Structure prediction request, 227 residues.
Amino acid sequence: MTTAPLISAQDLERTFILGSERIKALHGVNMTAYSGEMLVITGPSGSGKTTLLNLLAGLDMPTSGSVHLDNQDLATLSEWELAQLRRRKIGFVFQSFGLLPLLSAYENIELPLRIAEWSRRERNRRTEEVLDLVGLGDRAGHRPYEMSGGEQQRVAVARAMVHRPTLILADEPTGELDSATGTAIFTLLKNIAEQENVAIVVASHDVNVASKFATLTRDLRDGTFVN
Prediction:
């Protein structure tokens, strides 16, 4: 573990205004996440987990407070700079997998490298590498509808890490999976954090499973951490 966190949030506040109503989604949130570790943020629906992930990714800006990634204050970056930061340094995993249905597992995983204009040789090498890492080397040619939910989420995890990000954000990655498959996905994420030296921040409602694999678990309730 490095002495400095890869990503940190200080005194985060996020308030949404709906008509005449002010809704405070987050308040007084402080957190850090380190390379090679997995931080799991637990809490019920509506507690602010997704809002927090959006702020960590620079997809939304806090009402007050700050987010630093690799010592960069996200609020100081332009929209173009934020897009480049996400493209280079952040991988995303979603509850609904988010795979392109007409592309094979290999093509779904390779796509971020095409966008980043990696050479064909490097794309092939890295895509095959991560397919093997997630245990899907023999499923490279299959399309999403030909795979189980667990296999689709493994493809999604591989896609999130293929461009060698420093941070992976996973929003309820086991929400549509049975408990055994969910455990397998958490095991995979933990292994990736350690093997690839990536900081992984997971939002999950499943406290029992998450706590078995997390380096640290934080519980978010009504927009603030209670532990």
Summary: The longest strand covers residues 21-33. Helices lie at 49-56, 79-89, 105-115, 120-133, 149-161, 179-196, 207-213.
